[in-house]
Amino acid sequence: MPYQLPDFRPVTQGELRRIWAEHPEMRRLVLEVERYRRLMAEIDGLYKSTHEAWRTNGGDHLVALHMLQTLMTTERYRGADS
What we know:
68% of the residues lie in helices and 0% in strands. By secondary structure, the chain is an all-alpha fold. The longest helix is centred in the middle third of the chain and has 30 residues, at 27-56. 0% of the residues are buried. The mean pLDDT is 84.
């Protein structure tokens, strides 16, 4: 069984920019966080395309796609600046 992470406050874009500027040794980590955030945005776009194609061809709501979209939305906005 995988180890569950404890609850924590996500790092904001502003914090990532500050870390990038003040801690050059952490830039790889900052790039990794940003890469995953962009990947989440890309996956969200693919979800929307898939959902639209399904609906256009007469399909109804797919529970799995709806759950995926909910997860993606939550993840995408976790680290957004307040």
